[in-house]
Design a protein that fits this description.
EC number (chains A, B): 3.1.2.12
Protein name (chains A, B): S-formylglutathione hydrolase
Radius of gyration of chain A: 17 Å
Shape of chain A: globular
Enzyme class (chains A, B): hydrolase
CATH superfamily of chain A: Alpha/Beta hydrolase fold, catalytic domain
Largest sheet of chain A: 9 strands, mixed
Order of helices and strands of chain A: EEEEHHEHEHEHHHEHHEH
Distance between the termini of chain A: 35 Å
Strand content of chain A: 15-25%
Strand order of the largest sheet of chain A: 1-2-3-5-4-6-7-8-9
Number of helices of chain A: 10
Family (chains A, B): Belongs to the esterase D family.
CATH class of chain A: Alpha Beta
Number of strands of chain A: 9
Largest interface: A-B, 23 and 23 residues
Oligomer: homodimer
CATH topology of chain A: Rossmann fold
Helix content of chain A: 25-40%
Keywords (chains A, B): Hydrolase, Serine esterase
Chain lengths: 285, 285
């Protein structure tokens, strides 16, 4: 495993934000990610909270706009944000559409040509990146949680529900909560996974939660003025129904007047970080 | 005076971030600005805090990255952020350099061709924009303060020191504090004000503070790892010396390891907003 290359770093709330690149064996090319190391990480290991970003985002949007570092410093959490896809892989069509290919990896392991050669974001996020982080940063490998926004909310729910022993808690902002029923999900899944819709269910949070084996309450915020809610891209009500069927504890908050932007994310980031800190930080639990 | 056109808005911390454009008579063209209206403004007038941004920024950077809305909502302050220059004015050379023309108005009223036709940012910020805000938003016209970053820190200090009755308080992040002695300032002032350096002193905070008539303590933060500090662009020590000469109260904090980015600004934004709220908000003063 190659070590991450530090591209740039900035002090922030007593810790440091760093941008990194490395060669990914899962994605067979360069991947980028950002890390916020809280001040507590200078003297001891800390829990780690992964954030998965939405369509068109890079590893920078969340670090620059969400206001999470103040809270990560308060609770002593490391933040790790991967990019949303491989880039410049040479895959035909990767830059043609904003909702497929570059910036739109959907946290899936593609099985179809031409995507399968590089678009292995699920394995990257659940295996390769944590290995790299555990080896190179002062984190407790057994104290990790995950959250995300929009496409990344889908990704966070899928990663947690498929690996309930790995992730201690999960939350999401405006997730694509039932992608096999949404236009974005149908487009991405048909490209990455092919036409057999049975295979799609393995990356659909509203299907996965029916397994009933995630042990911690799930927190989801969605803005009522989110245009993608009205378009049927998010479908939190489908996820809610699945949770009810199996008794999965869910706090679904419909936030009056909020849209899909980071102005929405930043408003409720404190509740989400606290949701994770309550589970990850011994002194709070 | 034409009313501002709302371009887009987003709910944020119980209030609303809005982006506007309007025809500016001072700059003879379209100008843009952003406003954060805190929840308190729905039911009463509130004090207003202007933020002036740095080179290359627009009216968006601060709103997206500084994390100020949480605090403006807490204290009940309206935030107003103008763009950093006129744009697409047709002025010859306006887009040639990143540190002159577009994105680099320096909050000066230009007296030289070709700039003087549109680059009247000082008058715009101290007169036209406040008139527009006072008329169209729920603010107390006699409760306004100003702060800024880098070029905008210079602008904020100049606006406040030249108008000590208008601005109740001032603060700055990494300001160009003695522009007539810095490469950025020398370049901009020679373009906008001509070769007579005597005229430059009227837009130099370290000269203006010698008048000794600003009544409130000034807060300035500068990161010790700021590359522009090492390059002699900021010169906080010159401003500090001027303050000492006339007994101007100054809290100058050299923040160990911080750079020039919004990761630095966001870390200390709470102290700055509180600095202004202590003066602007009756219940705190």
């Amino acid at each position: 495993m190659s070590s991450p290359n530090l591209i740039r770093e900035s002090a922030c709330f007593g810790g440091v934000v760093g941008y990194y690149s490395h060669h990914s064996s899962a994605c067979k090319g360069v991947m980028r990610f950002s890390v916020y190391q809280p001040p507590q990480a200078q003297s001891s290991q800390v829990p780690v909270l992964y954030f998965l970003s939405g369509l068109t985002c890079s590893e920078e949007n969340f670090m620059a706009k969400a206001g999470a570092q103040r809270l990560a410093a308060k609770y002593g959490l490391m933040l790790v944000v991967p990019d949303t896809s491989p880039r410049e892989t040479g895959t035909p069509g990767e830059d043609n559409d904003w909702d497929i290919g570059t910036g739109a990896g959907f946290y899936i392991d593609a099985t179809e040509d031409p995507w399968k050669a590089h678009y292995q974001m699920y394995s990257y996020v659940i295996e390769e990146l944590p290995e790299l982080i555990n080896k190179n940063f002062a984190v407790f490998p057994d104290k990790q949680s995950i959250f995300g926004h929009s496409m990344g909310g889908h990704g966070a729910l899928v990663c947690a529900l498929k690996n309930p022993q790995t992730y201690k808690s999960v939350s999401a902002f405006a997730p694509i909560a039932a992608p096999i029923q949404s236009p974005w999900g149908e487009k991405a899944f048909s490209h990455y996974l092919g036409s057999n819709r049975e295979k799609w269910r393995d990356y659909d949070a509203s299907q996965l939660v029916l397994r009933g084996d995630f042990q911690h309450p799930i927190l989801i915020d969605v803005g009522t003025a989110d245009p993608y809610l009205a378009q049927g891209q998010l479908l939190p009500e489908v996820f809610e129904q699945s949770c009810m069927e199996v008794g999965q504890l869910l706090t679904l908050r419909m936030q009056q007047g909020y849209d899909h932007s980071y102005y929405f994310v930043s408003t409720f980031i404190e509740d989400h970080i606290r949701h994770h800190a309550m589970v990850l930080c011994d002194e709070l639990s």
